[in-house]
Amino acid sequence: xxxxxxxxxxxxxxxxxxxxxxxxxxxxxxxxxxxxxxxxxxxxxxxxxxxxxxxxxxxxxxxxxxxxxxxxxxxxxxxxxxxxxxxxxxxxxxxxxxxxxxxxxxxxxxxxxxxxxxxxxxxxxxxxxxxxxxxxxxxxxxxxxxxxxxxxxxxxxxxxxxxxxxxxxxxxxxxxxxxxxxx
Length: 183
Hints:
- The structure is a single chain.
- The chain is mostly helical.
- The chain is built from two helices and no strands.
- The longest helix has 125 residues, at 29-153.
- The chain starts with a helix and ends in a 30-residue tail after the last helix.
- Residues 1-183 are annotated as: Disordered.
């Protein structure tokens, strides 16, 4: 317990006892009041001294901190600015890269689309060719028939003739009506 607390406790005790009508057993009460005032004054001086010291120390500490941090702070700012610039450059580079990739993807899509169109066109052409061949196959017998009909439509003088053999040169096949042995 500090001395000031002891004095306060003693003073309270005396007040209590006087209120109850008990005479004070401490004749040096005025001396105690003086001491209490002196202790309070000393305590105030001590607090003022501590406050002043702590303010001075704090100011000194702030100055030191400013001096110490100033170059570092500037260096930090430079580094931060450089870092931000690098991030910005990197982001620009990424954007360019993304644009390039997007362009390549669009180009690939375009090529795929063209290949698909070419493939479809090729298949369509093949299908048309097959249809044409089928049509020609259907037309072929008709053309041959027409040729035969054309042959018979020709006048007799244009039609090729069978070679005529004299009767003496005719082959001799039994049962053949025009053979030599058959009249």
